[in-house]
Amino acid sequence: MSLPIHNAAIEQIYEQHHSWLYGWLRGKLNDACDAADVAHDTFVRILAARNAAHIREPRDYLTTVARGLVIDRYRRRAIEAAYLQTLSARPEATAISEEDKALIIETLIAVDKALTSLGARTRQIFMLSQIDGMTYQQIALQLKVSLTTVKKHMIRALTECALTMAEL
To answer: What are the residues whose beta carbons fall under 8 Å from the beta carbon of 10, sequence distance 6 or more?
Structure first.
């Protein structure tokens, strides 16, 4: 699609539906600033997708994109809160700079996103290994799968994490 057509479609959707989207988000999020941020991010996503002229039901499309962004926002906040809680339990001598905190949180969010994109079984096996500290044999016994299956899933999970880290 040509850029002028795409931009004209975005402009039209924005003029007709931005206020509605902002109001809908404000009701869902109970926070005017968050609603404004998500509404803005929704249009940025649509702008980047370059498919605005093909959108037939703008409110449905905007709602779908905005819901995904809200979920991402809540996931990010949960990861940040968990990290900061863990960090606060550490001795003061191991204080981490604000820049390092931001980098660690971004990394955790990227890894979470990578793990979310994996299947449930792969994610479960990865968590049992990396979080619970179980051996591959213990995981195989607990999940009643072969050791080869556990290894295959771990390779997938670790490869996805490595690719994610390489992108950062």
So the answer is: 43, 46, 47, 52
